[in-house]
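Dear colleague,

Following up on Tuesday's group meeting, I ran the structure prediction for the two-component complex that the binding team flagged. I've pasted the input sequences exactly as they went in, so you can double-check that nothing got truncated or mislabelled along the way. The structure tokens for the whole assembly follow below. Feel free to forward this to whoever is handling the docking comparison.

Inputs:
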Amino acid sequence: MINIAILGFGVVGSGVAEVIKENSKSLSDKLQGQELNVKYILDKRTFPEHELGDRVTTDFDMIVNDPDIVMIVETMGGSHPAYEFTKRAIEAGKNVVTSNKEVVANFGTELLDLARENNVNYLFEASVGGGIPIIRPMWQCLAANEIESVTGILNGTTNFILTKMIDENMDFSEALKIAQSLGYAEANPAADVEGLDTCRKICILASLAFGNTISPDKVHCEGITEITLSDVSAADMLGYSIKLLGRAVKGDKNTYVITAPHLVSYENPMAGVNDVYNAITVCGNAVGDVMFYGRGAGKLPTASAVVADIVDIARECKKAITWTVAEKDPVCDYKEAKVRFFVRTDDKKANDLFPNCVFCTTDEGYAFITEENTESALCEALSKINVLSKIRVL
Amino acid sequence: MINIAILGFGVVGSGVAEVIKENSKSLSDKLQGQELNVKYILDKRTFPEHELGDRVTTDFDMIVNDPDIVMIVETMGGSHPAYEFTKRAIEAGKNVVTSNKEVVANFGTELLDLARENNVNYLFEASVGGGIPIIRPMWQCLAANEIESVTGILNGTTNFILTKMIDENMDFSEALKIAQSLGYAEANPAADVEGLDTCRKICILASLAFGNTISPDKVHCEGITEITLSDVSAADMLGYSIKLLGRAVKGDKNTYVITAPHLVSYENPMAGVNDVYNAITVCGNAVGDVMFYGRGAGKLPTASAVVADIVDIARECKKAITWTVAEKDPVCDYKEAKVRFFVRTDDKKANDLFPNCVFCTTDEGYAFITEENTESALCEALSKINVLSKIRVL
């Protein structure tokens, strides 16, 4: 019997217990007859009706001091006390599995180092892309590649809102209300719609892909709150869909990382990723582009990823995922990276100032896509016309 | 230093050598400083110009008897002597990595058992989906799930031909010629266009997903040679694309496995998988649908998957993939499985005989999609009208 403890019995934590129960037979087969047993659940609330209600405790010390516990599942969310509990668990020689992207993005480097020192695992497949396998495939299956870029639609809430705007011509605030009524967006949707959630996730993927810590506070981050229906329809006329992307590209000297809405060509399969679905495209120097697609959130999909990590540890498959702090912060100034902008303008000078671009007419004037240049040079050039909106192009 | 031998120095085998050389620095980092060394290449040909030309031998005994060799990469293709060499390598205590779907589909059960007995690995990520990570994600990342179905566009050649037919209104034989001229299809394209290649791959995936050996010779297999431009345009009118699918669905008692062209709704992301790209959708009971997408063939993508398996073994991560022979063959009679058919007909009786279906007019008559029923019942009903073509609907 493999005894585990679940910290935080919310949506994901209770989903983990459900998957372990529901698939107990096939899980036991995969673990050569051993069974997974949820010995403790740490939560301030009580769950008297739940069949595991008698496992609920508020005493973390009891859990961390119990030698029976080989693995701790952290599904609390938020940085504190999740970070402190994780640290103590690792120091006590427990393996830790988490779905908490905030802790991994902010403290991953330290916790991975600590896990290595203590000869235990710290695994976090569920922290990015919900149930979509992405951490392990990047680390293990694409091990033969030098990874050149990672581009992801990483937040289901914002993708749902953008899909409503694009398919049903609904404006941002109306689409947000529907997302909230369906439980996809929280009452305070800032972390989603302002891009922070996407930013944390692309930082985790970039750290893993390139081997150096990428901190969310070093990454330029824009959300979708300023996208208008005029942007959506002009982008469509030019053959593009608008998606909130987390994007990391390896350069010779440093790394370009950004979170921002982008135009994605209809010819790119990511343009067809709709509703709450997520997709991550990884480009490796041998394999080319590989895309992973599925539900990026939700109780059982996320729990599925957590339990996969549990099974991995129980199979004693040592992973030793690692990334290190670079001597010099690897994130480049995003303004010096080369990009193209989609621009909407009502300024007749635009045609003369951007003579090599194809213009299309919109209800408020014109839209065009710039040639590629550094963001700072393009912004300088665009400062000479009245810009209604500008969005980067993938 | 980790010494390996490559059996067969064709497209994939030479790609493996190229990836090992090109990415030697990052591979060595991932292997804690150890280097991969190609000590032998088994091939009847000589490669005097190649920098590894001096490693080429025709003597398999020398390879299998060399205690330095810990791993053998089988990229010969074909069943024989690849199967015999693999068996001898495993019996000699060597790990074996392969891209050879024919050997895995036909002899996988025996070779996996033999590998377990000899405490070595037999890994085959490259046998399905080229560089797309699929074997390991299914086995490892989706371990928390009971897998309910696997559906794949598994053959790049046929998908290229179908894309040409759909996008450019080119007929089958013309599209095949272009595929041949681009090197996507062989002079004798039978294994691709008649579905055998897809069939082998879906058998490997189904065996892995459901834990029982699924043999290609038990699986109903249709190719794309009879798909016409009339099918393509009528399917389009109804909102579908035509794709050659390998499909395996777990039932209560047995398993439905088929290789055949299917109509795929434009709302399904698999409908947008074009050209030589492959995609595999796995449905797990916790995660829902997860799709993996990328180049399904080609020198470096396939080599990338082979080298990932090499790295995995070198990291001493014991996988012990396994499936067993079921007491009773698990594949059900495909005629008793429930399906829907897309039907083209010039028979005016069709409207009366299928009153609940929506008909659209085509240049030769009508097209419609049947209600769901067993294939045998539908074929019986369709025998009463003159059918121009019928294709299953996903």
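Chain A has 14 helices and 18 strands.

Cheers,
M.
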